Amino acid sequence: MTPQLLNAVITARTERRAIAVVTHLSTGAQRLVTRAEAASDPVLDKALRFDKSGVEQTDDGEVFITIHNPALRLFIIGAVLIAQSVIPMAQAAGYDVTVIDPRGAFATGARFPNVALKGEWPDEVLPALHMDQRTAILALTHDPKIDDPALEIALKSEVFYIGALGSKKTQASRLERLKAKGFEDAALARIHGPIGLNIGAVGAPEIAISIMAEMTKCLRLGG
Amino acid sequence: MTTALDTASQWLSQGRKIAIATVIETWGSAPQPVGSQLVVDAEGNFEGAVSGGCVEGAVITEAQDMIASGGHKVLSFGVADETAWKVGLACGGKIRVLVEAVR
After folding, report:
1. pLDDT tens digits for A81-110?
2. Nearest Cα to B79, choosing from B91, B64, B71, B70?
3. For residue B53, is pLDDT > 80?
4. Burial level of A14, CB count in 10 A (0-12/13-18/19+)?
5. Which residue in A1, A10, A51, A52 has the most chain B C-beta atoms within 10 A of its own C-beta, making it the best mutation to test that interface?
6. What is the ipTM of this complex?
């Protein structure tokens, strides 16, 4: 490996760009492949999507594909009870978690001691946070004033998962509001609501499990 | 999160000669997943891990050779492979490790 390649890998991670490094195992020759370049190569595309480094046989011989994906991130809109259950599970699964809630009474360090906490409105902070393909977002406040602007920003981004808390009825009126803002049905289909896999979850910890399961499914299998 | 590559970059900027070891394949109950990395300098200082500690010694020795030669090498460790190194994995797993000089 050359120092130039090493620095390119580190820079990509700092800038949250997904890349792969392909090493020819007999010659030691290496090349860096960007996410865009990998899109046209089924093997690399799959390796990046599933975050899976590994050895592949090619016509040229054996190669090792190293996947360097940015760290997973989760933005939770709403410093609420379900957030308190989701946070430790998401952190255990490798996510950097940030909770955003403009309501001072909710977003307190006492209630959320071990997580990044932002007391601003979602539309004030989210644009600067570069929501990318390794990012998920949950809208949990039940308050359209807070949730909707966050969902609008999420829909315009490449986030791999958008979840919104609420019943089927709540979800239907949410979609109507967003449609009125100009979003197409295909785009709105990205919002998972009611949130989480249907596992009959009762109470915040079990709902958190269903959310984590749905997020993981979208991350690993797409959708 | 600081990774072995961050350490590698830092050591390079200090003028140290280094090699990087990467787990490229595992079978059975290998403790460190594919992609795990270890950085080694010419004196044998290291950061990171390629196993639960069972094969690090051998990997570090090879890495120092790679620093000297400037090359790369693929090492195999495991109990079931006759061509494998003598250093077995106590866990019963098998791993292949790419060791390469950075230069």
Report:
1. 999 999 999 999 989 999 999 999 999 999
2. B91
3. no
4. exposed
5. A1
6. 0.85
* Bridge partners (DSSP) listed for residue A98: A75, A116
What is the chain A residue with the closest CA to B17?
A3
Compute the distance between CA of residue B74 and CA of residue A202 in angstroms, rounded to an integer.
51
Structure tokens at A185: 């049905």
Chain B contact present for A57, CB below 8 A: no
The shortest CB-CB distance from A7 to any of B3, B9, B25 is to: B9
Q: What b/e sequence results for A140-158 when a residue is b if at least 16 CB atoms lie within 10 Å of its CB, and e otherwise?
A: bbeebebbbbbbbbbbebe
Q: How far is B55 from chain A (nearest CA, A)?
A: 20
- Beta-sheet pairing, B46-48 with A30-34: unpaired
Q: Answer yes or no: are the C-beta atoms of A3 and B103 closer than 8 Å.
A: yes
Which among B79, B89, B20 is positioned nearest to B54, based on CA atoms?
B89
Which positions in chain A touch B101 (Cβ < 8 Å)? 1
The answer on pLDDT for B82 being more than 50 is no
